[in-house]
Amino acid sequence: MPRPTAPGRPVASPLGNKPRIMVNVTNTQAQTVQTQAATKPQRTQPFTAEQLLESWHAYIDQHPQERALVTTMNYAAPQRVDSDEHYEMVVGSPTEKNNVEEHKAEIMTFLSNALNNDRIMLDVKVSEEPIETPKILSPREVVEQIKSHNPGFNQFLKDFELGLA
Q1: Per mean pLDDT, which range of 42-46, 94-98, 104-108 is the poorest?
Q2: Positive or negative CA dihedral for 14, 16, 18, 20?
Q3: Residues facing residue 10 across a β-bridge
Q4: Count of other CB atoms within 10 angstroms of residue 157
Q5: Is 63:70 a contact under the CB 8 Å cutoff?
Q6: How far is C-alpha 26 from the chain's CA centre?
Q7: Which of 58, 77, 92, 117 could be a cystine partner for 131, CB 3.0 to 4.6 Å?
Q8: What CA–CA distance (Å, rounded) separates 55 from 53?
Q9: Number of CB atoms found within 10 A of residue 146's CB
């Protein structure tokens, strides 16, 4: 469609009436990756559950900015299902499941590279029973909890005249 430069004066398109071809680079790149993956031999290095957990925690350590994902990954570590390469992660809510699923390709790539195994599988499921997540305590609750677990703490607070504002 011609673009007007001044009122009532259209300018011809530099392409004229030729059809425009638009390329979606993302799809092309994805197809290239899929083709490479199909022709590349699969890595099948055996690994232990401990090695998986080490790699799992390495991913967590490298992504501290993803707080919701990291919190979920910390309490819902994967458990082996039926083979050495099939694991399951049980989360507490559909929101957590969606968050993990959004990052799953990146997580699986990281684990595959760290473990040198492309056959690893991870299923994410929502728990049928509520999962107790750690409660975040206020400073006052922290002090009260320390007092209840360590009676000598009261004396420490009195000796140094410490308290909460």
Answers
A1: 42-46
A2: positive
A3: 4
A4: 15
A5: yes
A6: 21
A7: 92
A8: 5
A9: 13
Q: Is the dihedral of CA 37, 43, 44, 49 positive or negative?
A: negative
Distance of CA 37 to the CA centre of its chain: 22
pLDDT in tens, 118-156: 999 999 999 888 766 667 788 888 888 898 999 888 888
Residue type, 72: T
Task: Name the DSSP class of 70.
Answer: H
The percent of residues in the chain predicted with pLDDT above 90, rounded, is 41
State the virtual CA torsion across 87, 27, 99, 75 in degrees, nearest 10. 30
In tens, the pLDDT along 63-97 reads 999 999 999 999 899 999 888 889 999 998 999 99
Of the pLDDT bands very low, low, confident and very high (cuts 50, 70, 90), residue 31 is low
H runs (alpha helix) in the chain: 25-39, 49-62, 67-75, 94-115, 139-149, 152-159
- Can you list the domains of the chain with their CATH numbers? 49-126 (3.30.300), 135-165 (no CATH)
Q: What are phi and psi of 86, to 5 degrees?
A: -110, 115
- Gap between the Cα atoms of 128 and 21, Å rounded: 50
Residue 116 CA, chain-centre distance (Å), reads 20
Task: Tell me the three-class secondary structure of 112-130, residue by residue.
Answer: HHHHCECCCEEEEEECCCC
